[in-house]
Design brief:
Layout (H helix, E strand, L loop, with lengths): L5 E5 L8 H16 L3 E4 L5 H12 L4 E6 H5 L9 E5 L2 H11 L2 E4 L4 H15 L7 E4 L6 H12 L5 H4 L2 E4 L2 H10 L15
Parallel strand pairs: 1-2, 1-5, 2-3, 3-4, 5-6, 6-7
Helix pairs in contact: 1-2
The chain binds adenosine monophosphate (AMP).
Length: about 200
């Protein structure tokens, strides 16, 4: 069992079309607060980002935002967080979010959400961190992505252990349990370098 203090959540800066997405963001924010876990996220007030931050704060949780200056200047930054870090670039933001967190959770979102998730998975498969990552598969939103990851394994571009490093759950409670208990094994990435 892994001890978690802070969980980084990647999620859409849009709300999505179905109310289920916003409700899931609320539920994860409340679950984090109730579990005494600090939410680390991109610091936005828009879309699911704003929803999860507001829900965690309203439930008494601590919320840390990490936002680049240019997004703050566009006035999409949340002004009521427990702590806000204003950084100079998207790269700096992602590095700081990763450093401040013990695990990563992914709600529905667009390409920004996927870019953040895949960077964490990429760093994990290279052995750069041992932190777990899991998706909250709201209403099957990520089913086709899961299918494509299986296709990568079938076609020899992704190791099964690296594919399985991405946890998936249907409820916030199950996701937090998965992040606490999932083994993170490090298998060397490249075929032919197994002896290294
Ligand atoms: P997307 O899934 O394309 O909506 O992008 C969401 C992710 O990209 C978030 O986790 C943020 O880190 C970043 N992002 C995109 N748009 C914004 C915004 N308006 N304010 C703050 N962060 C944003």
């Amino acid at each position: 069992m892994r001890t978690l203090r802070s969980v980084c959540v990647f999620c859409g800066s849009s709300p999505g079309l179905h109310p289920l997405y916003g409700e899931a963001a609320d539920a994860l924010g409340i679950a984090l607060a109730k579990a005494g876990l600090r939410l680390v996220y991109g610091g936005g007030k828009v879309g699911l980002m704003g929803r999860i931050a507001d829900a965690a704060l309203a439930a008494g949780g601590a919320v840390v935002g990490v936002i680049p200056r240019f997004l703050m200047d566009l006035e999409v930054g949340h002004l009521g967080l427990t702590e806000m870090h204003i950084v100079s670039s998207m790269h700096e933001r992602k590095a700081m979010m990763a450093q401040l967190s013990d695990a990563f959770a992914v709600l529905p979102g667009g390409i920004g959400t996927l870019e953040e998730m895949f960077e964490i998975l990429t760093w994990g498969q290279l052995g750069l961190h041992p932190k777990p990552c899991g998706i909250l598969n709201v209403s099957g939103y990520y089913n086709r992505l899961s299918g494509f990851l299986d296709h990568m394994v079938d076609e020899g571009f992704l190791k099964t252990s690296h594919r399985n490093a991405l946890q998936s759950a249907n409820t916030p409670e199950d996701l937090l349990t998965a992040l606490k208990t999932a083994p993170v094994e490090h298998e060397i990435k490249w075929v032919g370098l197994d002896h290294v």
